[in-house]
């Protein structure tokens, strides 16, 4: 490959709400980007599905629009890497054709089956896990299947029991990044990072991750349907001619192993070195950093999992609902009747801008109103599928502005709970957090995060493009054009937001109330929603 043909790469971020695609130089500089929305299907019993063909259409649409802008010669685009929502399951045939809509990371319909796999016998008090199985899972894989069913273990069990025809026909059970890599290359492979949430690999040695036959059996996964393992940030192969033709790319383009959005986000946030923290608020939220050693906190659902960065792990956390709560607020409470919160283009941007202006009319603390964002249960620091969201301390004097601001603040309060768990996990406080995702485009939210968390918030430039930027940087590393140590200086910081000491007392009171609401109401939520209550965090 000539030097000129290695100058540009494509990075794709396929989130739950849609696709963002960037064209970038191998130095990480973004030349252009395009977005497209995808439909989400929420089903009775905790189901959450998407059509993989919708994903492909969104990727094709964004890439075609980007290429039509003629920013660079198509022949100079050398590689593509796709980051995607992960912790999902796509059942495919031998040719990679999906046999069923994809089960997403928020699909919990397999919970009862996971509880049978993971429970029984002598249990670890307060966890629901069989002690012997939990020890094996944690010692070798760094975590265990979630009892909520919201991971590939629970989803595969749901297919086995509720969709036996699909399960029987499946040649491979792939996570979302792996499905997209197979659609591009024809190879059913998983990176050491994306395979982690099956909890069936021994990842005690970074770079030497392998399937563990005992863990495969414990997780109830059919060994012959698991993808082959490859190292992250490596070239899987050239793009298939048919895929290249559909997407408008040359057949010379190389495909780097797909990765999860959380791992790509850390790269796109510039948080590559150990203990450099980043916070992402998109549909969901997470707070993470890279660490040099494997560790697990089962009581708070925090684990160190294999990273795309060599010889390191990343701290895995997940806040189930974050930006999706803002969509819910617009569509069901504050927006005009019948307005679609997933509306595209300027309409959606204007709705969000109006909501930010409305929230800005209320004072910090929202006049005492506290919002809990548990609209789909919670994952970290409590793994509780039955907890639900709502407003507390609402009165006749509460305004629309209070409701709006408290929603932003409630998501920040949950992020503070998350941050406490991560800092306890790593043993050191974060001096600052690089903030990315669609939530980071809001100055109001940036300042609220700084005030609520008591940490300096560094707003990354073009924060909504961080995941796609990370994928592009991974592609550049796979080509040998960048070293990992080069990446922090390639990511610009747009602004810094420091905590306002005047707001500390009001947010400390709100946070104490927030934690209390969970402790005192978790049993009520469990009774209403039909499952045993989770153990309250310490």
Automatic annotation (TrEMBL):
Pfam families named in the record: FGGY_C (PF02782), FGGY_N (PF00370)
Annotated ranges, domain Carbohydrate kinase FGGY N-terminal: 8-268
BP GO terms, sorted: D-xylose metabolic process
Domain of life: Bacteria
InterPro entries for the chain: ATPase_NBD, Carb_kinase_FGGY, FGGY_C, FGGY_Carb_Kinase, FGGY_N, Heat_shock_70_CS
Keywords: Carbohydrate metabolism, Kinase, Stress response, Transferase, Xylose metabolism
Record-annotated Carbohydrate kinase FGGY C-terminal domain positions: 280-479
PROSITE patterns, A to Z: HSP70_1 (PS00297)
MF-aspect GO terms: kinase activity
Keyword Kinase recorded: yes
Family of this protein: Belongs to the FGGY kinase family.
Listed name of the protein: Xylulose kinase
Organism (species): Streptomyces hainanensis
């Amino acid at each position: 490959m000539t030097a000129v043909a290695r100058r540009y790469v494509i990075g794709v971020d396929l989130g739950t709400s849609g696709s963002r695609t960037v064209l970038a130089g191998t130095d990480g500089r973004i030349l252009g980007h395009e977005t497209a929305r995808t439909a989400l299907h929420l089903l009775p019993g905790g189901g959450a599905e998407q059509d993989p063909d919708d994903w492909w259409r969104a990727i094709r649409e964004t890439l075609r629009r980007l290429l039509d802008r003629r920013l660079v010669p198509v022949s100079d685009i050398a590689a593509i890497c796709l980051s995607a929502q992960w912790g999902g399951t796509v059942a495919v045939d031998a040719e990679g054709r999906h046999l069923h809509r994809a089960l997403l990371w928020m699909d919990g319909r397999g919970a009862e089956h996971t509880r049978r796999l993971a429970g029984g016998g002598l249990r670890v008090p307060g966890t629901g896990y069989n002690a012997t199985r939990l020890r094996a899972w944690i010692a070798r894989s760094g975590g265990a299947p979630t009892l909520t069913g919201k991971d590939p273990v629970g989803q595969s069990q749901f297919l086995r029991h509720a969709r036996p025809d699909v399960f029987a026909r499946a040649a491979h059970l792939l996570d979302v990044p792996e499905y997209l890599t197979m659609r591009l290359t024809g190879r059913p492979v998983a990176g050491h990072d994306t395979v982690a949430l099956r909890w069936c690999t021994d990842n005690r040695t970074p770079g030497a991750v392998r399937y563990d036959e005992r863990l495969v059996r414990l997780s109830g996964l059919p060994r012959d349907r698991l993808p082959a393992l490859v190292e992250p940030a490596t070239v899987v192969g050239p793009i298939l001619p048919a895929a290249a033709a559909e997407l408008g790319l040359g057949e010379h383009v190389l495909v780097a192993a797909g990765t999860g959005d959380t791992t790509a986000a850390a790269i796109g946030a510039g948080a590559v070195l150990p203990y450099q923290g980043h916070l992402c608020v998109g549909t969901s939220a997470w707070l993470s950093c890279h660490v040099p050693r494997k560790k697990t906190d089962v009581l708070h659902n925090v684990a160190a999992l294999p990273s795309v960065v060599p010889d390191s792990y990343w701290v895995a956390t997940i806040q189930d609902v974050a930006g999706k709560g803002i969509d819910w607020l617009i569509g069901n409470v504050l927006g005009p009747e019948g307005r679609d919160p997933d509306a595209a283009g300027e309409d959606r941007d204007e709705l969000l801008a109006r909501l930010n202006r409305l929230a800005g009319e209320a004072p910090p603390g929202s006049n005492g109103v506290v919002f809990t964002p548990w609209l789909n249960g919670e994952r970290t620091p409590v793994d509780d599928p039955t907890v639900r969201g709502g407003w507390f301390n609402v009165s006749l004097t509460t305004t629309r502005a209070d409701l709006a601001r408290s929603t932003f603040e409630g998501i920040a309060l949950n992020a503070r709970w998350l941050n406490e768990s991560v800092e306890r996990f790593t043993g050191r406080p974060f001096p600052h957090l690089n903030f990315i995702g669609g939530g980071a485009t809001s100055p109001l939210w940036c300042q609220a995060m700084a005030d609520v968390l008591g940490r300096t918030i560094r707003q990354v430039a073009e924060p909504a493009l961080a995941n796609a930027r990370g994928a592009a940087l991974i592609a550049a590393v796979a080509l040998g054009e960048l070293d990992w140590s080069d990446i922090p200086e390639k990511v610009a910081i747009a602004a810094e937001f420091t905590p306002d000491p005047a707001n500390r007392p009001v947010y400390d009171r709100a946070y104490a109330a927030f934690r209390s609401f969970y402790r005192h109401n978790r049993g009520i939520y469990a009774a209403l929603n039909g499952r045993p209550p989770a153990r309250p965090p310490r």
